[in-house]
Amino acid sequence: MIPLARSATSWRPTTYAGLLAALLAMVGLVLASLVSILSVTTTRADAVATLCLPQPNVSGCISGTVGNRTTPVEGADVSLLDKDGTEIDKITTEADGKFSFEVKEAGAYYLRVDPESLPDDLEIIPPAAKFQGPDGSIKVNAKLGKLTSPALEVRNKDYQSGGKGFGSEIVQSIAQGLRLGLLLALASIGLSLIYGTTGLSNFAHAEQVTLGGMMGYLFCNVLGLNLWLGVVIVTLVCAGSGFLQDMVIWKPLRRRGLGLTQMMIVTIGLSLAAQYCFQMFVGASQQKVVVENLDVFTLGPITLTKLSLVAMAISLVAVGLVGYVLIYTRVGQATRAVSDNPALAAASGIDVDRIVRGVWTVAAGLAGLGGILYALVVSNGIRWDTGMQILLLLFAAVTLGGLGTAFGAFVGAIIIGLVVELAGPLGAPGDLKYAVALAILILLLLVRPQGLLGRAVRVG
Amino acid sequence: MDQIFAILNATVSEAIAPATAGVAIAVIGLNLHFGFTGLLNIGQAGFMLLGAYGMAISVVQGVPMFFAVLIGLGLAILFATILGAPTLKLRGDYLAIVTISAAEIIRYVGRLAQFEKCEWSWCKKGTDFTGGSQGITSSTFTTPFKSISFFGDGAWTLSPFNYTSLGGSTAVRVLGLLVFLALVVGTVFFVRARRAAAARSWTDRLVVAVLVVLSVATLLFVFPQTMSRTQTDGWWVRAVAWTLVAVSTIVVLLLVRSPWGRLLRGIREDEEAMRSLGKNVFAVKMQALIIGGLFGALGGMVYVLASSVQADSLGRQITFFAYTALLIGGAASIFGPVLGTVIFYSARILIREAARTYVPNSILSDNQAQAFSFVVVGVILMLIVIFRPQGILGNKRELRFHV
Q1: Per-residue pLDDT tens for B113-159?
Q2: Residue A211, min C-alpha distance to chain B (Å)
Q3: Of A116, A136, A303, B180, which is least surrounded by CB within 10 A?
Q4: Which helix H or strand E contains B82, and what residues bound it?
Q5: Do A328 and A434 fall into the same domain?
Q6: Is B386 within 8 Å of A256 when comparing Cβ atoms?
Q7: Are both A248 and A390 inside the same structural domain?
Q8: Is the domain of A219 the same as that of A234?
Q9: Contacts of residue A251 in chain B, CB cutoff 8 Å?
Q10: pLDDT above 70 coverage of chain A, percent
Q11: pLDDT at B263
Q12: CA of B185 vs chain A CAs: smallest distance (Å)
């Protein structure tokens, strides 16, 4: 048999320790100075003055926020016009930027924000052509018994000419990229460890990420637990799910001698089932983990929520911990041995099943932690398919770094995070930023199939 | 009783839908990849989407139908070559990751607002290009397809001889349903009995074919389907779609029985052995990838004919469904893909409609019933792979591939 590429790592602790240190230093530079100033305070938004509750067949609601949740616009005059352009109602937003109208008839309405009432440097982002109404208004289709939330986001007027400055936009993207990369790293290290120790490409790993976000929604939003307590509980619950999964599904299947390809298809089935379970129980809409507005932190051109910085720090600590355990402890040594050659590891007295069980537990826990943090700071909520959207980024990160190498996955995740966030300012429109990451992956496979940190062996 | 008939009617209607036929063709291609050659292609939806875009955009730009189809197929060949060249020399996982990534790239690009309308000098300005996330509606590209129809106008019922001809009472329908069940059970027992006997003769095959045709006829007798002859979602599309399914099945049958087909199986079982026999494994894998991809593109064209070319409707889900269908029917079998797809699509509708009708809305709303049907699909996929990896028609000995 050809040695599989999952054993393609030469684990030289010093190299990796050095590499890890360098990366820690790099990311730490951005973080270290900031974390100290931090106290994550979240202010509960004031209750909306006119709360609108849609009633079936009686009334519908049109409500939303001027600006977005992190930067709402105060004092904007929002008018509701009927389809002939007659003003029906008018609201001036308060500090939370929220507006809300009740309508008694379904049909088309127009929303107009008075440009004069906006701060001088801001303008409303024009909607897609078919939603554009007369005089810069936005067309809204209201339905009875439904809440319609049109997007009234703002941007800098000189947005097109790069008003923020191309340079500072790049810096901001780098910060966001590091954030995305660190959170991806949490999930992809687990994916890589599972691949390393069992040879399985786990397509259901993304659902572990979603599970983390969903659990966060359950504990922090529905049950109203303290956020940090919630994060700890979510991580533990997700780790437990990994433990159970290995006990109920994967270990019996390994015992049966089910081939890796078949196992991979089982993970695809599990991923489908899990996704739609989420959709069944939580619905298809986006759910917030915390309902409060998040404080923003600004340093030069970089604007991030303070929570982002904490999330990045947590992620770094978790990754560092995994790295430390892998390199310096006996369990870590055993894990690496199983990764290199399971049969030989078993022969030298390592309980392979126990190690694999541990890997599943840790991997699911890390993914869950990544999931709740991702829902908190990147995607601003969790949806049934949030995980699926980043699944390919995870695979790209793992493959980029070298299949089955934990540190490769970390490096790969950071690179993918940066690529995804930098693709926008460098000219890739819309969702194409994800496509750019995948294209880079394919190109890399052309020249270096073993990945960045994998050792060149024959694969196939 | 009426409720049950309504549910079953929806199921039958889904079973013969053009979308089902389209996926069936794509699954036939996937079977060539995964079942016969052992190539783990998780980007079949990408092939489908390319085929659909290739044909639809060409037609909108005024290319004749025949050449539009060729353009779609040509794109699939190009796609397969680009994907295969770097990965077919590597272990199977790489092909898997690259195909799924490439399929997603196509979907992302197709959704881009920049490509929504045609704004370049080489195409008709202002016409739909990819249509962005809304997609290209079928009315803009199916006119040439409908114009070659010789089915005439108006509506038509299949089958013309149905339960209403015999008075239309419930008893007749129940009786017909029982006959259908008896025929299916009979077919299963016959096939099993003859499979035990080593050699299968032509008469056996004829008997099975007659039994299958009779069951389908009985089903349509109980659940007659009325549709327009030529309009968008009518009989013309269905006739073409299922003819293509039949043709694809026959082509694959001939291919895998050829010396080339034996090469495929050899590669699936032991690539090194094939190499040591002096075969060009890389070239053969590439040929398999291209041919399977052509079926994928063809399936994509059929899939969109009755609906619209929309990037998101041909995403990863479709590939996963295709795998489920393939494994239900039986990988590396000839009729498995078609049987699996029909069972997969109709069973999902059956589950959904039954859940909507019989489970009160307070427990499962309509949307939840839809989600529930997908959960069942996922669980079935897992259970099949674990407990009956050969599916319904497959041969367990054919499934020892290790990609």
Answers
A1: 778 887 777 777 777 788 877 888 888 888 888 888 888 888 888 87
A2: 16
A3: A116
A4: helix B65-87
A5: yes
A6: yes
A7: yes
A8: yes
A9: none
A10: 79
A11: 93
A12: 29
SS3 state of residue A138: strand
Strongest mean pLDDT among A15-19, A195-199, A355-359: A355-359
User: Which tokens belong to B250?
Assistant: 């026959």
Q: Which residues of chain B lie closer than 8 angstroms to A445, CB-CB?
A: 86-87, 90, 94, 98
pLDDT at A102: 78
pLDDT higher than threshold 50 for residue A34: no
Q: Which residues of B touch A396 (CB under 8 A)?
A: 97, 101
A118: region left, alpha or beta (phi > 0 left; psi from -120 to 50 alpha): beta
pLDDT greater at residue A60 or residue A409? A409
Nearest to A374 by CA among A312, A430, A431, A302: A312
CA distance B98 to chain A (A): 6
A175 phi/psi in degrees, rounded to 5: -60, -45
Q: Number of structural domains, chain A? A: 2
- Which chain B residues are within 8 Å of A5, Cβ to Cβ? 91
In a domain, A54, yes or no: no
Query: Do A185 and A332 belong together in one domain?
Result: yes
Inter-helix orientation angle A386-401/A166-198, to 10°: 80
How far is it, in rounded angstroms, from Cα A174 to Cα A141? 38
C-alpha–C-alpha distance, residues B276 and B267, integer Å: 11
Residue A225, number of CB atoms within 10 A of its CB: 17
Using CB atoms, pick whichever of B86, B109, B403 lies closest to residue A445: B86
Flag whether A248 is in a domain: yes
* Domain boundaries B2-159+224-399, CATH class: mainly alpha
Q: Tell me how crowded residue A12 is: count the other CB atoms within 10 A of its CB.
A: 11
Is the same domain home to A118 and A82?
A: yes
Residues in chain B with CB shorter than 8 Å from the CB of A438 are 101-102, 104-105
> Which residue from A279, A403, A446 is facing B93, i.e. has the nearest CB?
A403
The pLDDT assigned to A450 comes to 76
A129: confidence class by pLDDT, cuts 50, 70, 90: low
Q: Are residues A150 and A171 in the same domain?
A: no
Segment A311-329 shows an average pLDDT of 92
- Contact between A54 and A147 under an 8 Å Cβ cutoff? The reply is yes
Domain of residue A426: give its range.
5-37+166-447
- Same domain? For A154 and A14 the reply is no
Cα distance between the two ends of chain B = 49
Percentage of residues in chain B having pLDDT higher than 90: 43
In this prediction, residue A68 carries a pLDDT of 65
A140 and A285 fall within a common domain: no
Kindly report whether the global pTM for this prediction surpasses the value 0.80.
Answer: no
In chain B, residues 21-50 whose CB comes closer than 8 Å to chain A:
40
Residues of chain A positioned with their CB less than 8 A from the CB of B112: 429-432
B81 lies within 8 A of chain A by CB: no
CATH of residue A337's domain is 1.10.3470
d(CA A239, CA A241): 5
* Domain coordinates in residue numbering, chain B: 2-159+224-399, 160-223
Q: What are phi and psi of B154, to 5 degrees?
A: 85, -175
Q: Which residue of B has its CA nearest to A384?
A: B371
